[in-house]
Design brief:
Elements lengths: L12 H18 L4 H8 L3 H8 L7 H11 L22 H5 L5 H20 L2 H29 L11
């Protein structure tokens, strides 16, 4: 198998379901774990694990994170079989996000990134778009929660208790 799945290799969501399930089963067996072991480590019922491994069910991001933890692998390993981590995606640098019109190359980079994003979006089906949007919303909510927790930790002692003094 290749190191990753392209849209051409898995044009239908059914193939993606089968790939995720097959990959999870493969990783579980490589670790010498049974479905019962995974159930114990994740709290996910064995019958649900079986449904995921055999393809009729696609797990949520939370469930995939539980599987990754139980299998002691990084989350990307569920989707990527290569020996080395996948290459980092090409994103616009943070400086070009702050001031995208600062340089001509920044504009070209941003335009190229947006065009590539548009092309990928156009190749997705409605289901894949929905999954992607759901994941983005959940990641954004996590980031907001993390930022709020950091703000709580970063407050000086006694901050917010002025009315009790």
């Amino acid at each position: 198998m290749q190191g990753n799945i392209s849209k051409q290799e898995a044009p239908h969501s059914g193939l993606v379901k089968m790939y995720i399930g097959t990959r999870l089963r493969e990783l579980r067996r490589q670790k010498g774990l049974s479905q019962a072991d995974i159930q114990e480590k994740t709290g996910v019922h064995r019958c649900y694990i079986s449904r995921i491994e055999h393809g009729p069910t696609v797990p949520s991001l939370d469930t995939l994170e539980k599987f990754a933890a139980a299998l002691d692998v990084r989350l990307y390993r569920i989707f990527y079989e290569g020996q080395e981590p996948p290459p980092a995606p090409r994103f616009i640098s943070s400086s070009s996000l702050e001031d995208p019109l600062a340089t001509a190359s920044g504009r070209e980079s941003q335009a190229g990134f947006l065009q590539e994003l548009r092309d990928l979006w156009d190749r997705m089906g409605d289901h894949e778009r929905g999954v992607l949007i759901n994941i983005a919303k959940r990641l954004a909510a996590r980031e907001e929660q993390t930022a709020a927790e950091r703000a709580q930790v970063d407050r000086p002692p006694g901050a917010g208790h002025e009315q009790f003094q």
